[in-house]
Amino acid sequence: MNIKIIYLSLAISLCQLINAQSTGVEKNIFGIQIGTFGIWGNLESRLTNSIALRSEIGIDSGIWGGNFYPETGYVLTPVLTLEPRWYYNLNTRIKKSKNISNNSGNFVSLKSSYHPNWFAVSNYDNVQIVPDLSIIPTWGIRRSIGKNFNYEAGIGIGYRYYFAKNSGYSSNSSDAAVNLDLRIGYTF
């Protein structure tokens, strides 16, 4: 009878140890990512078990063209981003024995980005950036590939405000903004 109690106690202790694994977002994750429209360095910091605050600095890019331009133009400009993310399916992924390392999961976020007029790199001379602030509710996924690599995809529609008076225009303006992220990255 005593041996059964020992085995039962061992089994219960093992189950508690297994369930004690981290079931939430990572404490801090630092990484770099490259995507269709830029390159970024980011830091995700845990706020709660399911919410992380992502801060990011990077270079966004854009292209333009048409009948009024002799050649297709491009621009590279800095961007600063602050994005609270709610990873809503981490516990479900754990129950299905799926990986949640490096915050692998689905998320909903409020992506807030600011493009300052610090500099612009372009194939056209004297390209000026009108500073803007965008706030875009976004749905996305993040998955780990091996230990250090990851990919992300996200989509959202929100609001963008242009600080046009700072660039010599008579008034500021705003419009709808779209976020379409396709990125691959490395986590340190």
Describe the SSE topology.
Layout: H1 2-19, E1 28-35, E2 38-46, E3 51-64, E4 73-87, H2 90-95, E5 105-115, E6 121-122, E7 132-145, E8 149-162, E9 173-187
Antiparallel strand pairs: 1-2, 1-9, 2-3, 3-4, 4-5, 4-6, 5-7, 7-8, 8-9
Structure notes:
The protein is mostly beta strands and 188 residues long. The chain has a single domain, classed as Porin (Beta Barrel), CATH 2.40.160. The protein has an 8-stranded antiparallel barrel. The longest helix has 18 residues. It is elongated. The termini are far apart.
Question: How would you summarize this macromolecular structure in one to three sentences?
Answer:
The chain has helices spanning 2-19, 90-95, and strands spanning 28-35, 38-46, 51-64, 73-87, 105-115, 121-122, 132-145, 149-162, 173-187. It has 188 residues and is mostly beta strands.
